[in-house]
Amino acid sequence: MSGDSSFLLKKLNMRRCYHKMTYNAQMSIGKEKRKEMFLGVRDIPYVMGSSGRPDVMMRTKRGNCASKDLKLGLDLMKGGISKLMIGSVNFNWKDVPIPPSIISILPDARDVHSCLLVDGEIVDPAWDLGLAKFGLPVLSWDGVHSTGMGVKYLGVVSEYSIAQVLATVYVGAYLDIFRRMAR
Question: Is the pTM for the entire model greater than 0.85?
């Protein structure tokens, strides 16, 4: 019995250490630095249909919700924050304040929007300052709490690991290259 209890105590102690490390990692960069990182990504111009790859976004200075979320997530990871996921929601462009003439050229007004989840809080850097004049909700982050979502979403927020989304984005880019080569 004492062997079982010592095993449980060790396991409990390991769990405490893990939680302490996770907490310390989350606090490794201050909220002012997190806010600065958020603004740096948010203020890159949003371009519908641009690559979801963060490296392409940084090179072209144009991004979409996926590339912005991935870039911010990777930066926060480098800063020691570990509880990060990518959230994905369905939405309708008709619910976004953009001219109907633009919506009418879309093959389907339904689309998918992503956000970053930081310790379960929604952080959405999608819309840049230039879009505020069109009525899009340009969000701010205090470095801790949720920004809210930049779109009116339908259903629930699905969660994916950053690694999973990165793999999907890069595999998609390679498939595009292969398609072009096959033509």
Answer: no
